[in-house]
Amino acid sequence: MRSGAMRPGAQPNMQQLMKQAQKMQEQVARAQAELAEAELTASAGNGLVTVVITGLGEFKSVKIDPKVVDADDVETLEDLVLAAIHSAAEAQRELAETKMGPATGGFSLPGF
Question: Coil, helix or strand for 39?
Answer without folding.
Answer: strand
